Amino acid sequence: MIRKIKPHYSLGDVARMAGMESRELRHWEETGRIPPARRNPENHRIYDFDEAHAIVDFVRGATHRRIAVVNQKGGVGKTTTAFNLAGALVARGRRVLTIDLDPQANLTESLGVELGDSDLTIEDVSVNDDVMGAQAIRPTRFPGLSCIAARPRLAGVEIKIFDAFLRETILERKLKPLFEQFDFIIFDCPPNLSLVTVNALVCCEEAIVPIEAQSYSLKAISDLTNTVALIRSRLDRGVSLRFLPTKIDGRVKVAGEILEAVKGGLQDRVLPSVRTDANLVRAPMVRAPVVFSFPASKGAKDYARIAEILLTESAAPADPNLGNPAPPAAPPA
């Protein structure tokens, strides 16, 4: 059952978004710390998304963060993470912009964004000097969640920008006016370390790297960290990497062994795991992040937990030794 998208939020909803008790939020209103809420015909307090967002900003503090979801290996859960993490952050009263950089355009489709022939996409932003990021933003049916969409022809953008001036910073220049307009900007990167991915990393202060608990999927970590180190040295952009184990099945012994090896090698840069859950496959089919489509599922709880970590922790600083991270130890034979 898909949770109905609310036209407004209750006092309890907003209190949960802000991470506080309803009675405390009510007291804040009664003592003038926040403006009085509107009332519905039943005399209950009601808030639209903008009102809820303003309260969350006041309670938790304003934030403006940019996160690339990246791994040059395909099938590890990049789009799943971008899609569901964005939904989990919106459900906590944060304004989120997602940017689809994958020519497969799965994030665009998952969000239910339908494009007409004249609608601008991230390709137009990347290759057309006259198109800025704001012109390509499209709303979704979820208040607070917007998208810059992709089309399959994005696959050709690499060639089109290869000889461009300052080609690694094209997206940063085009999107910079948006950096203060959203609480989170989440980039869904293609499954490679192409010029498009480098552009996303240059835009961002943080990157989340989904990894499967399979030994061959860990080989990509070294290439990625070396790329980030190169961006830091040549372009003076620091990016903090955090690793997100995905598709974790606690019944599989070797998965647990590899997960422990990952935690041993990457230590505090490992986020809580996302468990295997069929609802994470179903959610894109119904065009709704799992926190809205299957709110009681394991996947919804896992992404909600990750969103809460991002909201309560400061962005991790870029690691000055990121070019040579401690490799995950091999799991026991």
CATH architecture of the largest domain: 3-Layer(aba) Sandwich
CATH class of the largest domain: Alpha Beta
Distance between the termini: 43 Å
Q: For this structure, what is the CATH homologous superfamily of the largest domain?
A: P-loop containing nucleotide triphosphate hydrolases
Order of helices and strands: HHEEHEHEHHEEHHEHEHEHHHH
Largest sheet: 7 strands, mixed
Number of domains: 2
Helix and strand composition category: alpha/beta
Number of strands: 9
Helical residue percent band? 25-40%
Query: Based on CA inertia axes, which overall geometry fits?
Result: globular
Rg, Å, rounded: 20 Å
Spatially, the strands of the biggest sheet line up as: 5-6-4-7-3-8-9
Which regions contain 5 or more consecutive residues with pLDDT less than 50? Answer: 315-333
Indicate the proportion of strand residues. Answer: 5-15%
| CATH topology-level name of the largest domain | Rossmann fold
Counting DSSP H or I runs of 4 or more residues, the number of helices is: 14
> Average pLDDT, to the nearest integer?
87
Walkthrough of the structure:
By secondary structure, the chain is an alpha/beta fold. It folds into two domains: 56 residues, Multidrug-efflux Transporter Regulator, Chain: A, Domain 2, CATH 1.10.1660; 249 residues, P-loop containing nucleotide triphosphate hydrolases (Rossmann fold, 3-Layer(aba) Sandwich). The protein has 14 helices and nine strands. The chain has a seven-stranded mixed beta sheet, sandwiched between helices. A two-stranded antiparallel ribbon has the order 1-2. Strand 5 and strand 6 form a beta hairpin. The protein is globular and about 60 Å long. The protein starts with 10 loop residues before the first helix and ends in a 21-residue tail after the last helix. The relative contact order is 0.15. The C terminus is likely disordered.
